[in-house]
Amino acid sequence: xxxxxxxxxxxxxxxxxxxxxxxxxxPGGAVLRNRVAKASMEENLAAPGQIPDHRLRKLYRGWAAGxxxxxxxxxxxxxxRAMTGPAGVVLDARAPLQPFAAWAAAARSGGAAAWxxxxxxxxxxxxxxxxxxxxxxxxxxxxxxxFARPVAMDDDDLRAVIAMFATSAARAIEAGFTGVQIHAAxxxxxxxxxxxxxxxxxxxxxxxxxxxxxxxxxxxxxxxAAMPAHAALGVKLNTADFQRGGFRQQDAVRVVELLGEHxxxxxxxxxxxxxxxxxxxxxxxxxxxxxxxxxxxxAHEIVAASPVPVMLTGGIRTVExxxxxLRAGVAVVGxxxxxxQRPALPRDWFHGRPGPAPLPASSAADKATASAAKQAxxxxxxxxxxARGVAPxxxxxxxxxxxxxxxxxxxxRRYRDWLARHTSxxxx
Length: 428
Ligand SMILES: Cc1cc2nc3c(=O)[nH]c(=O)nc-3n(C[C@H](O)[C@H](O)[C@H](O)COP(=O)(O)O)c2cc1C
Hints:
It holds the Pfam family Oxidored_FMN. InterPro entries: Aldolase_TIM, NADH_flavin_oxidoreductase, OxRdtase_FMN_N. This is NADH:flavin oxidoreductase/NADH oxidase family protein. The chain is α/β, with parallel strands linked by helices. It has 15 helices and 14 strands. The chain has one domain: Aldolase class I (TIM Barrel, Alpha-Beta Barrel), CATH 3.20.20. It has an eight-stranded parallel beta barrel with strand order 3-4-7-10-11-12-13-14, surrounded by seven helices. A two-stranded antiparallel sheet has the order 1-2. A two-stranded parallel sheet has the order 8-9. The longest helix is centred in the last third of the chain and has 31 residues. The chain is globular. The N and C termini lie far apart (47 Å). The structure holds flavin mononucleotide.
């Protein structure tokens, strides 16, 4: 097993290559040993009972040894009835804590900070999961099929979801994670509240951006109050939704200003949603994809306005790409796909070794299928790594998508059976 890379933090200077491997003190006092973060990737590897097991531990031990300064888990659900997929992990008030403690220990085993990403998918819940698709206003998802009919949330639902995030955050820290990240990007519940297209409310939770951001801010407040002071708090936010009339860059500027009024340690910037999956590169023009750092242009203004350190994720694969991001004033470079392909990518960057080649493109003509196939390829890599301890650097997206469909059918039955027991024992 390789030794933890404490040497990744020894150099400091104005050269972005050196800055990349220099420590970062976050506003709340936590220190990241370098500026490379593993961005969140839903692993789809929950054991029966929607809990982590040896596979997730193996996966995170690999990343822990790979030299990143921060590891953010795949999104963990705060509500068992609202899942992004049937093999998602749930950390609600009833989940047993020990499996999460073992997961946190694996993630921390190399000296990196380990944050759990917490998510409520809102209306982005597939109908076949049999759950509940909460949403700001009951507006259905456009242009993408298979989602459950959204239900507009009332005040009790809003209070409930705030409490769920706080409970999950407190339990994540109790399990040993060093921080949590609230997912407010990619079209999930908090991103829906931020979007004028999905949020048509006329009460205090809708209207101008300050009111559309209220649910996120209330959750930040409740999560902060539920955690000990040493725990770090991050938020993942879209630079934009890339939809006419949707959440815009100016909105993101305002939201980071609002977040700056609270003890938030890091804002990660991404983009897109189920309606416009640009976070996976789909639908972006060729020059943007070729340049790496898809959202860098949009991030400039947000970084300039942000009182909170910013992490930027999306398309970053090379050390040159990472340096360019730092030059723009970004504090932390977020990497997802390339770190799935090469868990020791930070170590390789440090030693001047090239990273993995991009994954092959899907043959699917439509953007949504191509994007799903890319994600399926990454998930296939994660599953293989979790089983064998060695990451395959490439995968066939079309074959991975077909495999995913078969695996999903089996896991769907398992999840639905579990949900019926989980919710009936809660009520009984
Ligand atoms: C398989 C897969 C699962 C993902 N799951 C999540 C997730 O749970 N939460 C999240 O915020 N982003 C998730 N993402 C998006 C990544 O964090 C990241 O924003 C996106 O992949 C772009 O970065 P990359 O080009 O380095 O992969 C996922 C991406 C992939 C490929």
